[in-house]
Amino acid sequence: MDSAAYAKWLIDTRRFWDADSEFQAKYRRICSSPEFDATTDEGELVGLWDRATEASLRMILRAIPISSEWTCVEIGCGIGRLLKPVAARCRQAIGVDLSQKMVAWSRDYLRGSPNAEVRLNDGHSLTGIDDASVDFVYSHLAFQHITLHEVVEAYLGEIARVLKPGGYCRIQNWRDASKPVAESLKDVVRPLLGRDRYRSSRCWVWEEGKEVRFGGVVYHPRTWRSLLRRHGLRCTSTELGAGHDYWMWTTSRRGDR
Ligand SMILES: C[S@@+](CC[C@H](N)C(=O)[O-])C[C@H]1O[C@@H](n2cnc3c(N)ncnc32)[C@H](O)[C@@H]1O
C-alpha cells in the first residue's frame, strides 16, 4: 500500500467519522436516513434506532449459527450498536473502529455488556487479535465507505488470518451490478421525491444541500466472490439488494489452509 496515500486516506476518513457530538454520530452518521432526519424528538429517534438495529441484526445473523461459545469481531463497529446484541449471544465480542470519538462513545453505550470491547484500529488491520481465534467476523455499514481497494484487501487478509478454519464471515458492501429496469427507475425517482439520499451508489448527501462523495469501492458480485476466494474465504451465499437496493451481503467461510 502506498504509505503517503494511505496516511492521507486515514486522516480524511477519521475526520469524517469523528462526528462533533454523540447525537451526530448516532443519528447522522451511523443511522443516517430521511426518517432520522425528519425528527429531533429523542423518543422517536430511539424507536427508529431500535428498529433499524433489529433489522440490521437479522441481516448480520442470517443463517449464522451463533453460539454462546463464540468469539465475534465487528469491523467498523461505531459506538457498538450491533456489538451489544451480538455480545448478548456469544462469549466475547470485539469491535474495531478507526474513529477515536466512536470508540470513546462506545464505552458508555456498552457499559452493560461486560463481554463487549471496542478497540481503536488503524483502519485496515485486526492487530492484537490472534490467528485462528475467531468464530465470526462481520461488518455492516462500514465496507460501503472504504474508498481504497488496498484497505479492503488488507481486511480480507486479516479476516482470513483471525478466523478459525470453518469460521464465518458476513460482510455488507455496495454492489456494482446491472439492475432490473424497475430498480434503476427507483434510483431516479426516489431522490426526485426526496425519499432517498443516495443519488448513485457512490454519492451520499449528508446534509441539506451538501453532497459528500464518500461511497466506498463498489464490487461486482463476481469480482467480490473471487476476491474472497483469493483470501481463502469460500462464499456460501450472496444476497443482492437485501435491505437496500445498493447493498450486497455475502456469507463466506474460512477453508482449511
Ligand atoms: C455507518 S457507521 C456503522 C457502525 C456500525 N457498524 C453500526 O452499524 O452501527 C461506520 C463506522 O465504520 C467506521 N469505519 C469506517 N471505515 C473504517 C475502516 N476502514 N476501519 C475501521 N472502521 C471504519 C467508522 O468510523 C464508523 O464508526
Describe the 3D structure.
- This protein is α/β, with parallel strands linked by helices.
- It has a single domain, classed as Rossmann fold, CATH 3.40.50.150.
- It is built from nine helices and ten strands.
- It has a seven-stranded mixed beta sheet, sandwiched between helices.
- Strand 2, helix 6 and strand 3 form a beta-alpha-beta unit.
- The longest helix has 19 residues.
- The site of S-adenosylmethionine has 24 residues, from helix 1, helix 2 and strand 2.
Radius of gyration: 18 Å
Identify the CATH architecture: 3-Layer(aba) Sandwich
Shape: globular
Order of helices and strands: HHHHEHEHEEHEHEEEHEE
Bound molecules: S-adenosylmethionine
DSSP strand count? 10
Can you identify the CATH class?
Alpha Beta
Helical segment count: 9
Mean pLDDT: 87
Brief description of this entry?
This protein has helices at residues 3-17, 22-30, 34-37, 42-60, 83-87, 100-109, 149-162, 181-193, 221-230; strands at residues 71-75, 92-97, 116-120, 134-139, 163-174, 198-200, 203-207, 210-212, 233-240, 247-254. With 257 residues, it is of the alpha/beta class.
